[in-house]
Amino acid sequence: MCASVFGCTRGAITRRKAKNRRDDMPENGESNTLFGVYKNLCCGVEVIVAEGMEFPDCPNHPRLTTIWKPANTDTIHKLPMKQAKSDKAA
What SS3 class is residue 9? Predict the structure, then answer.
């Protein structure tokens, strides 16, 4: 028997996550490798996370593990970046 209800729950979640975790579904605190729109599994909040930034906590469930999946981005188009023109003195 568990000493605490939270200890039992946390252990069960950890075992389930380890068994079913997909590498393409990052958690809060992990560094993002691909710019995009992500949706959390707990309540469907969508965020934009730039490459190199950490995935945030869920705004509705802070301090809990949040799993993020890529959102449907069929209608989002990434525009090419224009290089800044350099001003040359004439």
Answer: helix
25: buried, middle or exposed (CB in 10 Å: 19+, 13-18, 0-12)? middle
DSSP-H helix ranges across 1-90: 5-20
Closest CA to 37 of 66, 68, 70: 70
pLDDT at 55: 92
Secondary structure element (H or E) that encloses residue 74, with its range: none
What is the tens place of the pLDDT at every residue in 36-76? 899 999 988 999 999 999 999 999 988 899 999 998 766 66
Taking a C-beta distance cutoff of 8 angstroms, is the pair 44, 67 a contact?
Answer: no
